[in-house]
Design brief:
By secondary structure, the chain is an alpha/beta fold. It has three domains: 4-85, Arc Repressor Mutant, subunit A (Orthogonal Bundle), CATH 1.10.10.10; 97-169 and 280-300, Periplasmic binding protein-like II (D-Maltodextrin-Binding Protein, domain 2); 173-266, D-Maltodextrin-Binding Protein, domain 2 (3-Layer(aba) Sandwich), CATH 3.40.190.10. Helices cover 36% and strands 22% of the residues. Strands 4-3-5-14-6 form a five-stranded mixed β-sheet. The protein starts with 8 loop residues before the first helix and ends in a 16-residue tail after the last helix.
């Protein structure tokens, strides 16, 4: 076993860059060294791990299985060392730190203005990077520290594994459609009219059904999904100029104005409520900065709770 005192820790920083970039040139630029110096470092790393780590593939370079296996643990270890070197505690007013959040676009529209207002007031030196990462690869990213926090609906977190979480609020599903939609009868929406109309479905991955379709399947019913969209925030304008019906979290109504020309109605069949939750890796549960971020996110969602529809649970 190689003893830690025999290892130049700068080699591990370089390895992290090489694994992330899959390029000696880009890794050199990222770490502020020359390309020949990074090539020499790669030779030292190959000797240390007794593995090529990066090999030529096509027009570029690819990781060996050994390098792929090192990636998550290496990144997590470097994040831990970085926190060891930071002053203890977390003072928002003087902190210089970047947090990384994965969240759906609807949550961003609803909560990020409040989050940023509090950050501006309490922590002007703290930055936020937001991505729309879904369940795939979520646990490794949170474990390594590439992500600090993820916000998602409970049904998306199919295999929470080692992650922990906190429910922010519950929401229901509602029908969004234009005011003069032909399926409306006296301002109401029947099951026949609802199922007979074409539907829009927000599907970040572009395939499969949603929780609404799972409930309909159990009832022996089905709807026609004529349009799939990757984001909620683009949907209202599209729905307003079409005969499509959008089934979406009721919270979407908070982003609308009278100018959007839409009506928001309960679904004509009983549909499940869902929990919007934030999740993180327990390694960071006691980190003072992480605790502050979680409090900011929780505070930004106060008042968003909706009355859950009784009698229907999530499929499975």
């Amino acid at each position: 076993m190689t003893e830690l005192r025999q290892v130049d820790l700068n080699l591990l920083v370089a390895l992290d860059a090489l694994i992330d970039e899959c390029s000696v040139t880009r890794a050199a630029e990222r770490t502020g060294v020359t390309q020949p110096a990074m090539s020499h470092t790669l030779k030292r790393l190959r000797a240390l791990f007794d593995d090529p780590l990066l090999v030529r593939a096509g027009g570029g370079m690819a990781l060996t299985p050994r390098a792929e296996a090192l990636a998550v643990e290496l990144r997590a270890g470097l994040h831990t060392l970085q926190r060891v070197l930071e002053p203890p505690g977390f003072d928002p007013a003087s902190a210089r730190r970047t947090f990384r959040l994965a969240s759906p676009d609807l949550f961003d529209a609803l909560a990020l203005p409040r989050v940023l207002a509090r950050m501006r007031a309490e922590a002007p030196g703290v930055d936020l990077v937001v991505s729309h990462t879904t369940g795939d690869g979520l646990e490794p990213a949170l474990a390594s520290g590439d992500l600090d926090l993820a916000v998602l609906a409970r049904a998306q977190l199919e295999a929470p594994g080692a992650l922990v979480g906190k429910t922010l609020f519950h929401d229901t599903f509602s029908c969004f459609l234009r005011r003069d939609h032909p399926a409306l009868e006296g301002g109401a929406l029947t099951v026949q009219g609802w199922l007979g109309a074409p539907h829009a479905l927000v599907s970040p991955r572009g395939g499969g059904g949603g929780p609404v379709d799972a409930v309909l399947d159990r009832m022996g019913l089905a709807r026609r999904v004529a349009l799939r969209l990757p984001h909620f925030t683009a949907a209202p304008r599209i729905i307003a100029d079409s005969d499509l019906i959008l089934m979406a979290p009721t919270a979407l109504a908070r982003t609308l104005s009278d100018r959007d020309g839409l009506v928001v109605l309960p679904a004509p069949v009983s549909l499940p409520s869902h929990a919007v939750m934030m999740t993180w890796h327990p390694r960071f549960s006691g980190d003072p900065g992480h605790v502050w971020l979680r409090n900011v996110i929780a505070g930004a969602t106060e008042g968003m709770e909706a009355e859950p529809q009784a009698g229907v649970d999530w499929p499975g």
